[in-house]
Amino acid sequence: MASGEDNVSSKSIFIGSALAIGGNLLISISMNIQKYSHIQQSKAEEEVHYLKSKTWWVGLVLMVLGEIGNFSAYGFAPASLVAPLGTTTVIANAIIAVVFLKEKVRYQDAFGVLLAIVGAFLLITFSTKEFAELTGSELAFYMKQWPFLVYLVIEVVIFCVLLYVQMKYNVENVVVFLMLVALLGSLTVISAKAVSSMLNITFGGDSQLGHPLLYVMLIVMVATAVAQVKFLNKAMKSFEATVVVPTNFVLFTISAIISGIVLYREFYGLTFLEIFMFLFGCVLSFVGVYFITSNRKVENSEEQLLLTNADLFPGFLSLSSSKLIAVQPGNALSSNSAEYPMLMAKSNQDPALNDESEPIVTDR
């Protein structure tokens, strides 16, 4: 009997991993299709609104499908596994840049992709196999346990202190901004996993639609995701994408792993070796992302499509809503490359020009 349960768990892990990888891959492809659509429109003799472009709509549909896949992954696999698999987006962008944009293969890109792939393999291999979907009642029981309550209080206190310091002293520090994003992200992970699991159970025949926790978690998921966009955009305004991308990925992944361990007990039952190899896979993914994104110069040209700012943030819980903003032209009636300020990494600009060179972002 135990063997049968292990097979079910392993199958769920595989499905969740496939959904996470496939979802991030679709998101990466979709963004590049949308950018390609804008660039083609900028070259056209007659200016047309991008919403009338079939290519743009294809990209949007793929993005929606990718988001659905990424979200669904949390219903099948541990959060500590799904979050690090966001490296798929970075890997995909690096490969597309070489294949379709004919960019030269940098040694560090190849090395980074190799590390990220090996890291993903270790993550899937040594992730917990004791995974179960939780009903609303089971989730409520888990949330009443003292480890989670202590974790939640500590997280809220740290968030409030960081927010107070940032607002009162106008602190412009990338770690402060991205710590705020990561703390919110851990709540988004918890709520997204809860909603996804409860929906999966509902589709399986045991309806959870009458449990109030489903709607509470849905509200928390949306609210924290929107709040992350604000702080992520602030970080993007002030710092280079090559700094923000790897830092955000590391902090977000760590927060997702910790939240999974504390609430969902995802490391329970693992041996020391399995935990070590899993964490080693995370480290390889972190280093791989760093190598792929570091020392990458972004030119202000129509040909530059990839590996820029919000595109590199992996997955549903890394705010693809900000990605959607990034690939749309600043002026809805124009597609000229000069109106893609978020597609360019920050450079040392004349302070007098800051007002004109600010990225167009949504801060609400």
UniProtKB/TrEMBL annotation:
Record's keyword annotation contains Ion transport: no
A Pfam family: Mg_trans_NIPA
Keyword Membrane: yes
Family: Belongs to the NIPA family.
Annotated localization: Membrane
InterPro entries: EmrE-like (IPR037185), Mg_trans_NIPA (IPR008521)
GO cellular component terms, semicolon-separated: membrane
Protein name from the UniProt record: NIPA-like protein 2
GO molecular function: magnesium ion transmembrane transporter activity
Transmembrane segments: 12-34, 55-75, 81-101, 110-128, 148-167, 174-192, 212-231, 243-264, 270-292
Annotated keywords: Membrane, Transmembrane, Transmembrane helix
Organism superkingdom: Eukaryota
Membrane topology: Multi-pass membrane protein
